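Let us work through a complete example step by step.
Step 1: write down the sequence.
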Amino acid sequence: MSQMPQQAAVSKCPSCEEPLEPGDRFCGACGYDLSVVPARPEDSPTLAIHGVVPAPDDVDWPVARDSDGHGHPAPVHAAAELPGTDSGGSPLPPPPPAAPPSAPAVPVAPAGAPATGVRFDRPGEPEEYPLQAPDPRLTAEPAPVPGQAPAPEPAAASRQSAPAAPDAAEKVCVACRAGRVDDDGYCENCGHAQPRERDHMEQESGPIAAVSDRGLRHHRNEDAFSVGCTALPDGAPASVAIVCDGVSSATRPDDASLAASRAAGETLLGALPRGTHPQQAMHDAILAASQAVNALADEPATAREQAPHQNAPACTLVGAVVTAGLLVVGWVGDSRVYWVPADRTTPPARLTEDDSWAAQMVAAGLMNEAEAYADERAHAITGWLGADAYELEPHTASFKPDRPGVVVVCTDGLWNYAESAEEMAEAVPLDAAARPLHGARVLVGHALDGGGHDNVTVALLPFPAPSQGAGSA
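Step 2: predict the structure and record it as tokens.
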């Protein structure tokens, strides 16, 4: 989970963290030479991940035509909609059918015949077995005491031996698969708390997929994602993935990440078919996401939850666009994009730089990467989307990989357990490009096996083999 600092890092001394005044060349507290602090890098030009750096991209994008791009994201699957299994992995038996209204709740045996019952411990085997006759001494009603009021009749619900089967339109418990789920999210039969829709989300859209999970330590999922496919004006396919991580110290971080991911995804899927260059479209999508998060600060829900020690709704964002021969990434914050080639004998790469305290310490030469990320301040972010962000600086970069592979877009809930590009490549399944949903599930499982201390979200975008001459543009 991203952590918001109390003050913008650029306004503090990298050595002693004392506040600085505009134009200071040396720290007034410790005398640190501020000229050695490197300036924030500009947005990267188009680079080749492997091979020679190409010339500047002067692609003549075709004129847009009237098209919706055919981008229709698939519905998100909630955890309650997935089939359950028992402890051995076998499918659970279906819930018993509802009895007809006119039928008695308990069958009555003929006079003189032994009472029988049905075994529920062996699904599929309605074996009848004799029931012992009740002892009349235990069931006889006690004689009334003179002068005492009669005992009240027990409630009808207390005399029922089993809950009624839920209607087909009602939500069924994911644990017992038989009880109704009340408005508070608990099963009326076994009392099991039902998972919320955002606790675990999966979506597959064309060749790309994304999975988000609450993790093992947090009470809610504050991550969100948006994936989809569209087409460029010349008909070439384009894949889009946006991943957002809510800032835990801010108000309504889950709403912030959801609003940002939706706004950015819709902007990209709308701009690419019109002929907007993917890198410009990514920049505009980040601005649209920022406006969506800023709007949350003026909503009444924020005012109700706002406390003196809290900040306005905020989140980080990272995204990727894959087109024929071109990979574009954009980000604000500390979520990341990794490149993992299909040929694992070639090196992988991390394509983004964190907006974080640790990254600035490494850039300033004050710490090496291991020391910086071991510090408790490592995940304090220096860039985010939100009404109280000091300055919005969207980062975008484009690359031209010279071979097929898979693009990993993820929050720190995953890369905390696979930080380097080599560790991430080792965690990505070999068939991730052909089975992206399976690969995303494996990566989420990798984070959960590592401890699951944070929400985990990952999207996988296969990058096809470039066509002949694509790398020379």
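Step 3: interpret the result. The CA atoms of residues 25 and 35 lie 6 Å apart.
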